[in-house]
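Lab notebook page, bench 4
Experiment: in silico fold of construct C2
Operator: M.H.
Input chain length: 155 residues
Purpose: comparison with the prior construct
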Amino acid sequence: MSIILPKNITEVIQGNLEGYKLKYAYSLKLTHDLMGYFPAISAFGEERKIIFTDDLSLLTDIWKILPPRPSAIERRLYYSNEEAGLNFEICFEYYSTDLKKIESDSFLNRESFIKLLQTDGHKFTWASGLLSLTPEWSQEQFLKEIDSAIKELAA
């Protein structure tokens, strides 16, 4: 028996939603007063991937090793099929005219995080582009903001 995996959220919605459930996932982004999106990324060589995870504790651990910059948690809603490793963001405001643009995101888990930490040349960092316009935070202010954001999501 062969399994055909959907390529985008349209195929998920039009097909069988068995095995999918709604769940939150999280990412991190720099906060600023400008246009643009500057997320936390996993970087290795030329490869850059935005970090998404459904593990808030893991996100907190990643946040604490990033350079201290004004930043925030972004919470997103997904149709997720854990068995197939498929996670489709539900973001109709951006893709309302073409749902075929919503492809599966991969979620970072703790096991993969530990492997990446041990990989030479790999780093967790902020996406480039917003360098001198965003002031750096002290480590103390940075950790205080992390704790505050986690408490707010838990409420």
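Observations: The two ends are 45 Å apart (CA to CA). The chain has a mean pLDDT of 82.
Next step: discuss at group meeting.
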